[in-house]
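Run log // design_07
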């Protein structure tokens, strides 16, 4: 009972910080990608304009990393959802770098830096208000509140926290340990639902009862997604090292922006930004692109996520990985008409997320929530098994201090 009120407060505040940063980024994105090109009389996704915007975003974020106190936090290549507790002076620069990145078009999401900010604030305020409470408890509340807000449901938070607790010795039942984080996740989810009403359902053609062909398709697509994701994981230390040789954020980030501009020219404007709005556009017309176009978007988005994460942009990899999996699944549908779009998308997202995040519950949850169909859950559970065998025990998409991949 004593944990309930703090958990609800942490969840609400975590959600409001996410909403604030996302709203500010969306407003700036409208100015940069709509109002400004319209005023200049150029196309919103005119090729030179994409180069200019991505290069300018690299310059802007580079200035923040270089000059703002705290340098926008640690190297994002070394962080994940389990964020470190940062000094208060670091947080304004990290929020500014995240908002600029989201508005400018690099292929990363807000999850990692927003979790880091919320965790740091929760620990700062919580340990002062309740000196006897352990720091780890405030970390869990902030992570759960932010994850609940990111996905609009506390279920994702509960699954991730329970997965984290699986390797720890906990007192009492597991539900006792996830009670407070679940409350924080529920508060975060309800807050963002009341404010912005997020939805992950892609409204793909309805999927009925699964058949043997659907099972085969899900296993193959998930395995292909896992292999593609692992290609990025293995390339990560080398690409990060290449940008690291530039040694200065005002060289690394603008150079990354130029590479991202070239990738956008190859893959089109749908491969820009974190990817949620773009997958909704793909899902509205699953037959609107050829298999080659879907394959191009898949590869380009993977490369864009790799470059953005390697050159120093502050952001997470979950949402661009969801775009990659969606494009892969629709590519499978375009190649083999018997592959149902819902099966292809869910299996593709599952495989890519397993490789990029190495979190089974999160991968299953996101894949299932994109396709609201009870019949697909059994397929995903089976498809996750061979995909997991392809990724488990192998390097993570996270680097140690010496630049080698973590395991």
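design_07 sequence
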């Amino acid at each position: 009972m004593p944990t309930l009120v703090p958990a609800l407060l942490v969840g609400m505040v975590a959600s409001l910080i996410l909403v604030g940063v996302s709203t500010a980024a969306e407003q700036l994105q409208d100015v940069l990608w709509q109002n400004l090109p319209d005023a200049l009389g150029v196309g919103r996704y005119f090729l030179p304009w994409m180069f200019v915007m991505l290069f300018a975003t690299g310059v802007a974020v580079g200035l923040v990393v270089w000059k703002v106190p705290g340098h926008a936090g640690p190297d994002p290549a070394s962080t994940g959802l389990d964020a470190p507790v940062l000094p208060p002076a670091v947080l304004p620069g990290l929020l500014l770098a995240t908002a600029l990145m989201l508005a400018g078009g690099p292929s990363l999401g807000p999850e990692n830096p927003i979790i880091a900010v919320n965790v740091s604030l929760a620990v700062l305020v919580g340990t002062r208000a309740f000196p006897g409470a352990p720091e780890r408890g405030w970390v869990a509340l902030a992570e759960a509140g932010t994850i609940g807000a990111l996905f609009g449901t506390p279920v994702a938070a509960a699954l991730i926290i329970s997965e984290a607790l699986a390797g720890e010795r906990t007192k009492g039942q597991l539900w006792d340990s996830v009670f407070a984080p679940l409350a924080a996740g529920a508060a975060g989810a309800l807050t963002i639902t009341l404010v912005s009403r997020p939805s992950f359902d892609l409204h793909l053609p309805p999927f009925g009862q699964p058949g043997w062909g659907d099972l085969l398709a899900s296993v193959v697509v998930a395995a292909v997604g896992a292999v593609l994701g692992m290609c990025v994981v293995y390339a990560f230390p080398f690409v990060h090292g290449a940008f690291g040789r530039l040694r200065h954020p005002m060289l690394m980030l603008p150079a990354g922006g130029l590479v991202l501009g070239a990738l956008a020219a190859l893959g089109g404007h749908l491969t820009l930004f974190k990817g949620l709005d773009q997958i909704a556009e793909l899902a509205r017309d699953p037959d609107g692109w050829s298999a080659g176009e879907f394959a191009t978007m898949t590869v380009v988005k993977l490369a864009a996520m790799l470059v953005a994460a390697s050159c120093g942009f502050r952001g997470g990899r979950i949402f661009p990985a969801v775009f990659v999996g969606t494009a892969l699944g629709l590519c499978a549908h375009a190649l083999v008409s018997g592959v149902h779009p819902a099966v292809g998308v869910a299996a593709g997202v599952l495989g890519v997320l397993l490789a990029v995040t190495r979190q089974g519950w999160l991968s299953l949850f996101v894949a299932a929530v994109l396709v609201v169909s009870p019949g697909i859950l059994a397929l995903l559970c089976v498809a996750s098994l061979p995909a997991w065998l392809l990724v488990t025990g192998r390097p993570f998409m996270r680097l140690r201090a010496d630049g080698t991949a973590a395991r």
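Residues 3-196 form one domain.
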